[in-house]
Amino acid sequence: MPVLAERHRGHGRDVGRWGVWVLIALRDRQMRFFELRESIEGISEKMLSQTLRNLVRDGLVWREVEPTIPPKVTYGLTPVGQGTSDRLASMFDWITDNAGDIRSTQMEFDTANS
Amino acid sequence: MPVLAERHRGHGRDVGRWGVWVLIALRDRQMRFFELRESIEGISEKMLSQTLRNLVRDGLVWREVEPTIPPKVTYGLTPVGQGTSDRLASMFDWITDNAGDIRSTQMEFDTANS
DNA sequence: CAGTATCCAAAATGATACTG
DNA sequence: CAGTATCATTTTGGATACTG
Lengths: 114, 114
Hints:
The structure is a homodimer.
Chain A: E1 2-3, E2 13-14, H1 16-25, E3 31-32, H2 33-39, H3 45-57, E4 61-66, E5 72-77, H4 79-97, H5 99-112
Antiparallel strand pairs in A: 1-2, 3-5, 4-5
Chain B binds a DNA duplex through helix 1, helix 2 and helix 3.
């Protein structure tokens, strides 16, 4: 999903297939890096790190470091990120609520085209 | 963006980076294939065709063929697709309205990290 | 703990040509 | 007009090892 509704290269940035899940994960509460890694099934450290960097750059997520040893790094939603996440969640809820419809349509489609 | 809020392979389907733009484009009115191609800047026929097939499969978009020569094929949003598109648009509007914030955050970020 | 670096595999996309 | 087929390329992601 692109941040900034622009398709032209140079502006905006794509948060990739993982960005939406990070935004959703942070909706309930702020989290440490490892908590995000554990709560987002299937994400690698590399992709989580990369996705977070882009979201921070875009101002949707903030990052706070406690320079202890070992360090603690916490992430959370900024106001803009919160609004984005809320609207994203609304869309997900809509899709989930209509999952029955979607599934049967998919099955009909796959049956018709096999 | 995944259709069906599931990350596990086998279910849901990814409408890719173009799906959101198709959903947005069809928000105002139904369109023919070539109209979509012209209104979505940068999309190739291949990707448009592929994206539309997935959206139809997912029941977010309907497809109607007039078997004339040459054929006319029209696409539009189903009720589920309309709801999805509305919520997507709401998120885009939010991001657009906050583009100023986002841009300055990006610039600060890029300055700080160069 | 929270990353980065490197290398490789896989998937998505683009360009071009072609068809009913 | 509305696609599909094929191939090249770009992009993305995963595995692994390493570091402050």
